[in-house]
Design a protein that fits this description.
Elements (H helix, E strand, L loop, with lengths): L11 H9 L4 E5 L5 H7 L4 E5 L12 E4 L16 E4 L8 H7 L10 E5 L8 H9 L5 E5 L7 H10 L3 E4 L4 H7 L2 E5 L3 H7 L4 E5 L5 H4 L2 H4 L2 E5 L5 H13 L2 H14 L4 H14 L4
Parallel strand pairs: 1-2, 2-3, 3-4, 5-6, 5-8, 6-7, 8-9, 9-10
Helix pairs in contact: 1-2, 4-10, 7-11
Length: 282
């Protein structure tokens, strides 16, 4: 069932609108779903809160999920929290990625690179990276973010460079699985690449991504570059070229990634929530 809500997002009336649906349990994911929203929702439903950085650690929740590797460093003193699910063992990997994990990778004549810089890419990092990689001896697949305002410009660039081709959002799981290296924005797509044993060059494009990649776990399968690097184009090209020329390093990164993210995180979350619900008096 889909319910259209016209209330201001995160407001008390927004929370009350959800409460009127009378759910047994809710999953909340959003920085804006704070105290006002919870006041409107009330104490009726069982609450699972996804909280990546501890912004809402003081709000009531029955279960808190932080799938990221820095999660153990964050204190969650939320009143009423029955269980904490923290770390990459709880990474929520979508079914399309899990399906690709079971498929034997195809081999191509040229190395393959997949590029995805997120939905909006306000700094136009996709174009910069596409140009920098177009001169490598590799097939480079470019994902254009669904909310990227420069779609026409990017498609024109892709059409001008023989090494580049567009990858649709639906085809991203297969492109990630087939890639020898992926160049990604430093968000949760990193966990999908890890699950698929694909080494990553990650570009930090937002401040809240820094702690996401600043752990030994992530560094084992991922090289990180700051999006504010004065010569990001050259830095990305050099790192990708080094990886493509180093089979042993890529193999180590691939093994580290798939050992950290096995694709079963969502199943673990469901089992943990079910166990808490069974022991609840709601």
């Amino acid at each position: 069932m889909i319910v259209d809500v016209v209330e201001p997002p995160g407001s008390t009336t927004d929370g009350a609108a959800l409460g009127r649906v009378d759910p047994d349990a809710v999953t909340l994911d959003g920085y804006h779903l704070g105290e006002d929203f919870m006041d409107g929702l009330g104490l009726g439903p069982f609450v699972v809160r996804i909280d990546d950085n501890g912004e809402h650690s003081q709000l009531p929740a029955d279960t808190i999920l932080n799938q990221n590797p820095h999660a153990p460093l964050i204190e969650y003193p939320a009143p009423g929290a029955s269980t904490l699910l923290r770390g990459l063992e709880y990474a929520l990997i979508r079914e399309e990625i899990r399906d690709q994990r079971a498929i034997t990778r195809s081999c191509g004549d040229s190395p393959r690179v997949a590029v995805s810089m997120g939905g909006t890419d306000p700094a136009n990092t996709t174009a910069l990276i596409a140009r920098s990689l177009s001169h490598l001896s590799a097939e480079v697949g470019i994902v254009i973010g669904m909310a990227n305002p420069r779609c026409a410009e990017l498609r024109s660039l892709i059409g001008e460079e023989p090494a580049l081709h567009e990858v649709t959002h639906e085809a991203l799981p297969a492109a990630l699985a087939d890639a020898d290296v992926a160049v990604l924005g430093a968000g949760t797509t990193l966990w999908e690449a890890a699950c698929l044993a694909t080494p990553v060059v990650a570009v930090i494009t937002a401040d809240n991504q820094r702690q996401l990649v600043d752990t030994d776990e992530v560094r084992s399968f991922c090289l990180t570059l700051d999006g504010s690097h004065p010569d990001l184009s050259t830095a990305v090209s050099n790192e990708v070229a080094r990886l493509l020329n180093d089979d042993c390093r890529r193999a180590r990164m691939a093994s580290a990634g798939e050992s950290l993210v096995d694709g079963l995180g969502a199943d673990r979350v469901v089992r943990a929530v079910e166990a808490v619900l069974e022991g609840s008096d709601r």
